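Lab notes, practical 5.
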Amino acid sequence: MMIILQFLYVILPIYIVAFILYTIRALKGPTIPDHVLAIDAMSYDLAAFLVVLSIIFREPILIGTAIVLALWIYSLDIYISKYLEKKEVGE
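Output from the prediction step:
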């Protein structure tokens, strides 16, 4: 259990700093792709963190949550890229 806590003490600050940087980029990004990329990175990191927590705490439900989150962000990417390419919403 001590190894797990030490792992969390090392990984957690890295994730917090990354989330702060992603949030700054998402809020101040000068272009729409910058906003999208920051939100993508934040979401995929959150999914990876959920998988790590699932392994540590042996809770398989978190893996399903991470998969759904990753698929949701992927569909958002496709939707936004179609909008940026054709300037149409929908379909």
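Observations recorded by the TA: DSSP finds three helices and no strands in the chain. The radius of gyration is 16 Å.
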